[in-house]
Amino acid sequence: MPKTIIISNRLPIKVQRTEEGLAYETSEGGLATGLGSIYKEGDNIWIGWPGTYFDDEAEQQQVRKDLSNQSMRPVFLTEAEIRDFYEGFSNETLWPTFHYFTQYAIYESEFWEAYESVNFKFCKAVMENAEPGDTIWVHDYQLLLLPSLIRKELPDSSIGFFQHIPFPSYEVFRLLPWREQILKGMLGSDLIGFHTYDDARHFLSAVSRIVGLNSSQGVIDNGFRSIMVDAFPMGIDYEKYASMAASEGTIAKKEEYRHALPEQKIILSIDRLDYSKGIPQRLLAYELFLKENPEFHGRVTLSMVVVPSRDQVEQYKELKETIDELVGRINSSYRTITWNPIQYFYRSFPLEDLSAMYSIADIALVTPMRDGMNLVCKEYIASKLDKKGVLILSEMAGASRELADAVLINPNDLGQMVQAIRTSLLMSEEEQMLRMDHMQDIVRRYNIHHWVKIFMNRLEFIKMKQLSMATE
Ligand code: GDG
């Protein structure tokens, strides 16, 4: 019986060593939720790294055994692989290049060699589990070479690939010394998905100019197979966020927050620590807003959550310092005995707290310099049960293509961000509700389950078409 294999760098679970032994924490992320209905079914499996370094054979065996009961197969990475493949090529070469931060990109042949060898390692793990006829879905920029490695071993398998981060324009992509190998790696797929049409268009243009393969209506013919390239904007588990916002726990937390911030307009900002998210620019815009709008002093609070991420990498350490300094400067310049312009948290929160923050916020300020999609803004929309609240959203987030009723801004335009904050604070409730209603329709309809379904259906359609052409 053919099965489906999901592969991503990280498994939807985190394994940790504790004093009592190994502890398993399941991921609540959107991808894990959306694909949960697939990988837990029948013989289907999910292959990936469990997120912790294990060198002890007995410990690895234990992890293997524990995870196999949950339809997961671990790929163990060595310390050198974590450093060169994950922190190195994935996060210091591909991540900055694909987010247009080319000044941060490191082109290091040792990183590339590690990237190739870890992609081989993943391929080996796939081969230990796959059979002809299986459907394989590879995720994200850490595994760009994997589709063609699997194709060599299993020529007739059905392979889908989805990239969660942007695909840059040809002019930026071509800076990578390994651009051709990367594209050829991806072209092992039958279906290649991105969040937006622009990403898909950039990919097709890079394939045409670097590999010399042209496309017609998103389909590339490599002489052996047709490869379809399209946009599949990812959604969230809408019902989860909507029902959590109505839960007793969230309502109690919301009251607690309201009590702590009486009569304040709350502007919410939530991101992982990352230069792509535009956090310093957002702070500068808020500072300028306070300077130009003294009538709002004492009446507005920026509640800013920055979730620690990749803090071993130099640029992230520097970014953290920049944010700390800006928050310090703004708070010390404007605070009063009874008011703090910014509530700054450098940590992550349980989902219930997040839900209360989404529900209570008058404005969500989501202003990345680049973002594949951005799920935070969709979670905010789903949490707004009374439809009151405004979303300020960067044009550079994939989500802006769907959410035309947000107040859209260019994150490089400080003046426009300042104006957007003012407009949103003064927006009538009627207009807020009208805009929110439209956005909720979209986010509810194009949810994570819809996303998984249309991607898998398209992959199946392509395979059927290939089979029917082969028998003609
Ligand atoms: C990549 C792409 C694309 C945040 N703080 C806390 C917390 N979160 C959760 C949010 C949200 C997730 O983290 C962040 O998702 P994003 O989509 O905003 O951003 P990335 O992590 O950069 O994700 C992105 C995504 O992949 C999917 O394809 O949209 O463009 O960069 O779900 O809720 N969760 C908890 N506590 C926190 O403090 N529990």
Textual characterization of the structure:
Helices cover 48% and strands 18% of the residues. The chain is built from 17 helices and 17 strands. The strands form 3 sheets. A 9-stranded mixed β-sheet has the order 5-4-1-6-7-8-11-10-9, with helices on both faces. Strands 14-13-12-15-16-17 form a 6-stranded parallel β-sheet, sandwiched between helices. Strands 2-3 form a two-stranded antiparallel sheet. With 472 residues, the protein is α/β, with parallel strands linked by helices. The structure holds GDP-alpha-D-glucose (GDG). The site of GDP-alpha-D-glucose has 19 residues, from strand 12, strand 13, helix 13 and helix 14. Belongs to the glycosyltransferase 20 family. In the C-terminal section; belongs to the trehalose phosphatase family. It comes from Rufibacter roseus.
Question: How would you summarize this macromolecular structure in one to three sentences?
Answer:
With 472 residues, the protein is α/β, with parallel strands linked by helices. 48% of the residues lie in helices and 18% in strands. The two termini are 25 Å apart.
